[in-house]
Amino acid sequence: MSDFQNTDQPNRPGIVVTGASGRMGRMLIGQILADPALRLVGALERPGHDWIGQDVGTAMGGALAGVAVSDDAVGAIAQAQAVIDFTSPAATVAFAELTAQARAVHVIGTTGLEPAHLAALAAAARHAPIIRAGNMSLGVNLLVGLTRKVAAALGTDWDIEVVEAHHRHKVDAPSGTALMLGEAAAEGRGAALDDLRSPAREGITGARAPGSIGFSAIRGGDVVGEHDVIFAADGERIVLRHLATDRAIFARGAIRAAVWGQDKGPGVYDMHDVLGL
Ligand SMILES: NC(=O)C1=CN([C@@H]2O[C@H](COP(=O)(O)OP(=O)(O)OC[C@H]3O[C@@H](n4cnc5c(N)ncnc54)[C@H](OP(=O)(O)O)[C@@H]3O)[C@@H](O)[C@H]2O)C=CC1
Ligand SMILES: O=C(O)C1=N[C@H](C(=O)O)C[C@H](O)C1
C-alpha cells in the first residue's frame, strides 16, 4: 500500500476532476477510479471539447467509468465534496467561486498564479477549504524544508540558484515548484522572495547581487519535472535535487489532500498541512 493511501474515511468523498483530458486530469481520474475509497462524480472540460458527452473511462481508452465528461461546471461541482483542479489560472479562479458556493474542498495544483488570482482564491477560501501547492509530491515538500534549513545555516557568501527542467508543453516559468523552493530559501534567510529574487538574466546583466536568489528554466521533450537548489560558494557547492519521473506522485498527493480536507474549515492550506511536515 502506498504511503499516500487513505482508506479510513467512512464516507467516500465525491470528487470532480477539472481539465479531465489533460496530463494531470487523466492521471487523477485513473487513480480515483482505481481506489474503492473514492468516488468520481464529475469530469469537466471546456465547452466544445471533443470528450464532452463521452464516458470519461472510455474517452481515456479504458473501461466504462459511468461518468460523462461535461462542460457544466455549476451542475458538477454542486454534487462534489472535493474538486481537484490542475488547469489554468483563469479557470482555477472560476472553479474556486463555484467550489466555495458548494462548500467543497478545492485542491489546486495549477501554477502560474499571479497576485490577482491569489487574491480571488483567498476570497473563496473564506467559505471553504482550499489546499494549494505548486507541487503535491512528498519528495518536493520534504525538499522545501531542507532548502529552508540549508539556507538558514549558510551566509550570503553562498549564492542560491534554483534550476528547473520541464517538458516542452509547460507554459509558465519559473515553475511553481521552483518558486516554492525559492520562497523556502528566502525564508531561511529571514526575507521574502520578492526582496531577494534576481531578475531574469539576458545580455549584460552585471555581476550577481550578493544574497540574491536566481532562477533558470529548461524546457524540452517529456521531462516530468526536475529541480535543483544550488548553494554555491568559493571552492564548494551543495546541490539539493528532486527528480520526478512519474506524474502519479502529484496525483497521489492531490487525492490525499482532497480526503484530508474533508473535515477542515474554510482557509488556505498547503501540502505541509496535509502531510503534517
Ligand atoms: N502542483 C503540482 O503538483 C502540479 C502542477 N501542475 C500544474 O497543473 C496545470 C496543468 O498541467 P497539465 O495537466 O500538465 O496541463 P494540460 O494542458 O495537459 O491540462 C490542463 C487541462 O485543463 C484544461 N482547461 C484549461 N482551461 C479550462 C477551462 N476553463 N475549463 C475546463 N478545462 C480547462 C485544458 O483544456 P484545453 O487543452 O482545452 O486547454 C487541459 O485539458 C499546470 O499549471 C501545471 O503547472 C502539473 C503537475 C503537477
Ligand atoms: O507543469 C508541470 O508539468 C509541472 N508543474 C508543476 C510546477 O510548475 O512546478 C509541478 C511539476 O514540476 C510538474
UniProtKB/TrEMBL annotation:
(S)-2,3,4,5-tetrahydrodipicolinate binds at residues 167, 176-177. Residues 15-136 form the Dihydrodipicolinate reductase N-terminal domain. Its EC number is 1.17.1.8. The active site is at residues 166, 170. One of its GO terms (molecular function) is NAD binding. SUPFAM superfamilies: Glyceraldehyde-3-phosphate dehydrogenase-like, C-terminal domain, NAD(P)-binding Rossmann-fold domains. Residues 139-275 form the Dihydrodipicolinate reductase C-terminal domain. One of its GO terms (biological process) is diaminopimelate biosynthetic process. It is found in: Cytoplasm. NAD(+) binds at residues 19-24, 45, 109-111, 133-136. InterPro entries: DapB_C (IPR022663), DapB_N (IPR000846), DapB_N_CS (IPR022664), DHDPR_bac (IPR023940), NAD(P)-bd_dom_sf (IPR036291). It comes from the Bacteria. NADP(+) binds at residue 46. It catalyses: (S)-2,3,4,5-tetrahydrodipicolinate + NAD(+) + H2O = (2S,4S)-4-hydroxy-2,3,4,5-tetrahydrodipicolinate + NADH + H(+); (S)-2,3,4,5-tetrahydrodipicolinate + NADP(+) + H2O = (2S,4S)-4-hydroxy-2,3,4,5-tetrahydrodipicolinate + NADPH + H(+). PROSITE patterns: DAPB. Keywords: Amino-acid biosynthesis, Cytoplasm, Diaminopimelate biosynthesis, Lysine biosynthesis, NAD, NADP, Oxidoreductase. Catalyzes the conversion of 4-hydroxy-tetrahydrodipicolinate (HTPA) to tetrahydrodipicolinate. Belongs to the DapB family. Homotetramer. PANTHER family: 4-HYDROXY-TETRAHYDRODIPICOLINATE REDUCTASE 1, CHLOROPLASTIC-RELATED, DIHYDRODIPICOLINATE REDUCTASE. NCBIfam families: dapB. This is 4-hydroxy-tetrahydrodipicolinate reductase.
